[in-house]
Amino acid sequence: MFEEVKKKLGFGCMRLPMRGDEVDYEQFNKMTDDFINAGFNYFDTAHGYIQGKSETAIRDCLVKRYPRESYILTNKLTGDYFQTEEEVRPFFEKQLEICGVDYFDFYLMHTQTKNLFAKFKRCRAYEQALEFKKEGKIKHLGISFHDTAEVLEQILTEYPQIETVQIQLNYVDYEDPAVQSRKCLEVCNKFNKPIIVMEPVKGGNLVNLPEGAKGYFEELGGMSSASYAIRFAAGCEGVFMVLSGMSDTAQMQDNLSYMKDFKPLNEKEMQAVVKVCAAFKGMNIIQCTACRYCTDGCPKKISIPDLFACSNAKNIYHDWNADYYKDIYSESGGKASDCISCGKCEKSCPQHLPIRELLKKVAEEFEN
Ligand code: SF4
Ligand code: SF4
C-alpha cells in the first residue's frame, strides 16, 4: 500500500459546499482544516469537477494554505480534454499550474471504459503519464474504472505499471451485473493493485434511506446510514482509500467520527447491510449517482440526474410535487419529453443506464 496515505477516508472534491454558483470558500477552508487536523490527508479532484472550480478551490483553500508534503493530491486525465497525442502534455501541465503544485501524488486515467481506453492508447496517454512520473511530476499512476471486470483485466495486463485502481463500490452495487463491483474488486486483488473506492454512498442514495430500509440501521443505534456504507467499502479486501464527496461541515464531521479510528463492520452490522440491500433492491429506483457526466452533451439541455432524483423521490418516499419537477426543467430548459433520443448521454453514463427509456417513464409519471 502507499505509506504516505494516512487514513482510509479521502476528501472527494466533486461536490463541494456552494454559495450560488461559486464554491463556498469559507466553509471549504474550515472543512479542509477539520479534515487535516483530524489526521486525514487525501484530496481528490478532476478538471471537470464543478466546471473547473474544484481545482481552483483546492489551490486556494488547500495548496496555498498548507505545506505540499502535508497532503496527498490526486488529479485525473479526462478524455474530453484531449483529442490527439500532442494535446495530452499541455493539458497535464495546465492542471499542475491551475492547482499551483509541482506534482500530483496520484494521477489517474479517468473513467476508463473499453472505448475510452482505446482512445487513451491511440493518444499514448499511458506512455506520456509514465514520462510525467519519470520527471517527478506524478508519484503514482492509476486509473479510475467504469466497465466490466473483463475490460479491467485487459487494461491491467497491457499496462502492468498501473499502481492503483479506482472503482465504484457500495453494498447495493456489489453484485450488480452492470457495475460488477465485486468482480472488479477481485480483479484488482488478483493483480495486486490497491483499490480506491468511489461512490461508497451511491451518489447520496445510501445517505437518506427510505422507510422500510433505514429501520435496520436504526436498530443498531446511533450511527448514520452513511457510516455503514462507508465502513462497508473501507472494509473490503484490498481497499486503501474510500472517497466521500463531502459538501458540508455536518457530513464531514459525521465521516470523520467513524473513519478516524476505522473499524470494519462487525457481523451484526453486516447482517443489517444485507437486509437494507434487499429492501433497497425491492424498490423501483433509478440507479443514477448524479455524477452529471451525461448533461453537458445533451442538445435539449435536459437536467437528467435531477429528473431521475424527482422520480426516485416519488417512488421511494412518495414525496413529490409536480411544481418541483417543473422548476427543474424550467431552469435547465428541457423536460423529459423533450428528449430526441439521440443517445449522446448514454455513451457517457458510467452506470450504463438506459437514459432514453428512463426519461420516457419519467415523462409518463410527471407530465400527464
Ligand atoms: S438522448 Fe435525450 S437526454 Fe440523452 S442527450 Fe439525447 S436528447 Fe439529451
Ligand atoms: S444518468 Fe448516468 S451519467 Fe447521468 S448523472 Fe446519472 S449516473 Fe451520471
Which helices and strands appear, and what pairs or packs with what?
Layout: E1 9-12, E2 18-19, E3 22-23, H1 25-37, E4 42-44, H2 53-63, E5 72-77, H3 88-99, E6 104-112, H4 114-122, H5 125-134, E7 138-145, H6 149-158, E8 164-168, H7 181-190, E9 195-198, H8 214-218, H9 225-234, E10 239-244, H10 249-259, H11 267-281, H12 304-317, H13 322-332, H14 344-347, H15 355-367
Parallel strand pairs: 1-4, 1-10, 4-5, 5-6, 6-7, 7-8, 8-9, 9-10
Antiparallel strand pairs: 2-3
Helix pairs in contact: 1-2, 1-10, 6-7, 9-10, 12-15
Give the key terms.
single chain, 43% helix, eight-stranded parallel beta barrel, alpha/beta, binds iron/sulfur cluster, two-stranded antiparallel ribbon, globular, 368 residues, 15 helices, 13% strand
Instruction: Please give the order of strands in the largest beta sheet.
Output: 1-4-5-6-7-8-9-10
Unique ligands: iron/sulfur cluster
Beta-strand content:
5-15%
State the separation between the terminal residues, measured CA to CA. 54 Å
Number of helices: 15
Overall pLDDT confidence? 92
Helix content: 40-55%
Low-confidence stretches: none
How many beta-strand elements? 10
Q: Report Rg.
A: 20 Å
**Could you state the order of secondary-structure elements as H and E?**
EEEHEHEHEHHEHEHEHHEHHHHHH
